[in-house]
Write a structure and sequence with these properties.
Length: 186
Amino acid sequence: MEFEEKTVKSERIFDGVLLHLVREEVLLPNGKTSVREMIRHPGAVAMIPFTSDGKMVMVRQFRKPLDRTVVEIPAGKLETSDKEPLVAAIRELEEETDYRAEQWSELAVFYPTPAYLDERITIYLAEGLTKIENSLPMDEDEFIEVLELTYDEAKALQESGEICDSKTIYAMLYWEMRLLRERIEG
């Protein structure tokens, strides 16, 4: 069965600083038409940074859509000047945490909510962290507390709901699998 929908008409409803809302009329595989409303996003990066003593670096910040403070892995949107996502990841880690990583590995690319949002997040593993001075300045509208958490501390924050976003929950699952693999191998 063919699943592809063909765009018949596209209309920009809203152009914001970060997000763009689009309404499209689509032709369905059965020949009928339907309407799709979508948010266009430039994409983002996130990183799972580990300190030399095995702690994960996370950030605490207020998220207006939730109207509360949450704990997340460091992340940021792609800028038009970013040639590749890794450039943005390196910048965001330094801006948000004052850390620089020696080793970077791409772990995954995922779409958090593909039903209505085209945001693509590339997640990296960042290791060999070094605390730096004179790091890149944080965005003027960001207020962040940097945390270095053990697995048990992070798990407690997840269970309390303070860690609640998909990219950080993915990072927690990655960490669990890493710990499990170390136990099995070691």
